[in-house]
Amino acid sequence: MLWITEFSGFFSAALAVILLSPSLQSFSPAAAIRSSHLDAYFRPSPSASDHSVRNFSYRESPILRNADECRFSGGDPGVCNPSYVHVAITLDFVYLRGSIAAVNSVLQHSACPESIFFHFLVSETSLESVIRSTFPRLNFKIYYFAPERVQSLISSSVRQALEQPLNYARNYLGELLEPCVDRIIYLDSDIVVIDDILNLWKTGLGPSTIGAPEYCHANFTSYFNGAFWFDERFNETFKGRKPCYFNTGVMVMDLKKWRRFGYTETIEKWMEIQKAERIYELGSLPAYLLVFAGHVAPISHRWNQHGLGGDKVKGSCRDMHEGPVSLLHWSGSGKPWSRIDAKHPCPLDSLWEPYDLYKRSH
Ligand SMILES: *[C@@H]1O[C@H](CO)[C@@H](O)[C@H](O)[C@H]1NC(C)=O
Ligand SMILES: *[C@@H]1O[C@H](CO)[C@@H](O)[C@H](O)[C@H]1NC(C)=O
Ligand SMILES: *[C@@H]1O[C@H](CO)[C@@H](O)[C@H](O)[C@H]1NC(C)=O
Predict the structure, then answer these.
(1) Which interval of the chain is the signal sequence (predicted)?
(2) pLDDT tens digits, one per residue of 220-272
(3) Does ligand 1 lie within 6 Å of residue 51's CB atom?
(4) By C-alpha distance, which of 192, 4, 187 is closest to 102?
(5) What is the pLDDT of residues 19-61, one digit of tens each?
(6) Which of the ligands is closest to the CA of residue 361?
(7) Is the CB of 295 under 6 A from ligand 1?
(8) Ligand 1 center to residue 48 CA distance, Å?
(9) Residue 142 contacts by C-beta under 8 Å, 6 or more apart in sequence?
(10) Ligand 1, residues 47, 49, 50, 51: which to mutate, most atoms within 8 A of Cβ?
(11) Which CATH superfamily includes the segment(s) 10-43+58-355?
(12) Nearest ligand to the C-alpha of residue 227?
């Protein structure tokens, strides 16, 4: 664990340097929020001929072991062992490098890395071998998410790239995962965790089914259009609630309640309405707002320092929000690995780089 301690030390130093740097432009939370949910829209489609995407090769991550104080009951290595912390993340060719860095970051900062079980949602089964060779001792399972499951529910939009079925896989965790898994942390692929994930896992959800950082200053009206707000079939949806925006890239989900209340179907119903009536312009997020806004267990903002991807404007770099940081999220269209490869990194991209396991081919 000494190595981890040193590593964290390096990290705090790096953070301090960046936080003190006056050259970083600040930005309004609303702008960050707006850019973060557009994320899904700007995913490029993977192209089979693109070697930089398909020709992956990753360094093996160092093997980390549980500290003495971990109360992991080693007995049953299966997914149903009640000592596991469960984490779900998607894997696809386009974001693979990000997903691998995210997993690496979770392990590096965990005092009990052997007590974490990863659930990978894929639409390409060939990705399993990459995970196995990069993380030889990882507890994980691969779940195939058939794109056809949602394809017919995804409303068409101006840009085809906005309609990646895997973006919707988080809605199916309740049915994909084993029934014994009754809590899951869902993480996007463009994040790194710089704190012990156990602290997020232990968050109480109270009566709520999901927990996430909430952003109540965001203009909630703007997430839906006139077809929603001026239609009496829809415009009382939030009556009696205090809806706030939240980002679905970091969520703690009570799958027991999720399954019991059938939220997968509720979200699918809204997707059908969206397909017929076009009540919002965004991708997978608004259906979550319709079902959960106002009923979310608020989690500390330190667990989603979002918006670091910036917007489409080339070279637009974002600063962090005030306050402590446990998770950095490059939501927005810019991704740290692309900017690093293009030799135009943003200052905060240096916080992502230590977790990158990508090995360039020579
Ligand atoms: C990987 O890269 C090598 C060398 O650049 C190339 O010959 C090979 O076709 C690539 N493989 C794939 C699957 O793109
Ligand atoms: C919130 O957004 C709506 C729709 O985009 C807009 O009409 C309204 O003026 C905004 N309200 C505030 C307080 O900015
Ligand atoms: C809902 O829409 C109807 C029809 O446009 C309108 O008369 C009503 O004022 C709206 N209600 C709210 C709460 O906005």
Answers:
(1) 1-16
(2) 999 999 999 999 999 999 999 999 999 999 999 999 999 999 999 999 999 99
(3) yes
(4) 192
(5) 333 333 333 333 333 333 333 333 344 444 444 444 468 999 9
(6) 1
(7) no
(8) 11
(9) 91, 120, 122, 125, 127, 128, 131
(10) 51
(11) Spore Coat Polysaccharide Biosynthesis Protein SpsA; Chain A (3.90.550.10)
(12) 3
pLDDT of residue 28: 36
Rg of the chain over CA atoms, in angstroms?
20
The rounded mean pLDDT for the chain is 84
Cβ–ligand 1 distance for 52 under 6 Å, the answer no
Weakest-pLDDT range from 113-122, 198-207, 259-268, 302-311 = 302-311
Q: Tell me the CA distances in angstroms from 250 to 64, 100, 131, 156, 163, one per residue in order.
A: 24, 16, 21, 26, 20
* Ligand 1 centroid distance, CA of 47 (Å): 13
Render pLDDT for 308-330 as a digit per residue (tens, 0 to 9).
998 766 658 988 888 999 999 99
What spacing in Å lies between the alpha carbon of 193 and ligand 3's midpoint? 43
Residue 265 Cβ contacting ligand 3 at under 6 Å: no
